[in-house]
Structure formats: structure tokens, C-alpha cells
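Subject: Sanity check before I submit

Could someone independently write out the C-alpha cells for this chain? I want to compare against mine line by line before I put it in a report. The sequence has 122 residues.
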Amino acid sequence: MRRYVSDVAELTEEYGIQIGRWKQYRDLGALPFDAMWCVIPPGGSSAEDVHPEVEFAVVTRGTAVYEAGGEKVEVPTGGVILLDPEQRHVIHNPSPEQSLTILSIYWMPQVDSAEPDGAGRD
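---
Independent answer below. Compare away.
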């Protein structure tokens, strides 16, 4: 059993927020996904981001407000947001006092290969 905590992660400045990529945990080996901690200070926001990966983001501390396509969605602690590939988004921390922490898990979407002629037909 292994335990990873955002409070002691090595963070760098990326996308206008603090990021802790899971590559820092060398004992994990190869995973079928990438992950990172995202820490946004009180009242802060990320830069707009867009990427080819699917993103599964779990709010682990605070409340996040995700903005995408003109829509804003509030995600409380323990909530999850799923972002599609190429979906432009910004993350806001509406709290004036508490940092927001998110565990972002992301991966390249699987490409469905075309079925051979006649496959799957009755």
C-alpha cells in the first residue's frame, strides 16, 4: 500500500497555478494514465487550457468552478468533472480563504478502429 498527499508534493508554476506532476513519484512505475495535483490559491484561476487528453478531475479540497464553452459548473470537495478532449476550460477558486486542490487524471482517448466489412451485422 502506498500513500500520496498533495500537501507534500513538489509543485511548479504551470498554467497560472501550482502543478505537481505524478512523475515525481518514481516508485509508481508505468501507469495507464498521467496525473497531477493542481493547487489554486484563494480567489485564483488557472490560465485557459485545452489538450487532446480526456481529463477526470477530482476536487480533493475546496470548491472548484469550471468554466467551459460559456458554462460554469461548481464542483464541491469529493466531486468530479470529466472534460472531453479539446474542451477549452478555466478553473476558478471562489474561496477568499482556502486553497483549492484537484487531482487531475488524464489519458489519450482510445480510437475505435473500424470494424471489418460484415463484422457485427446480422
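---
OP: Matches mine. For the report I'm noting this point. Residues 6-107 form a domain with the Jelly Rolls fold (CATH 2.60.120.10).
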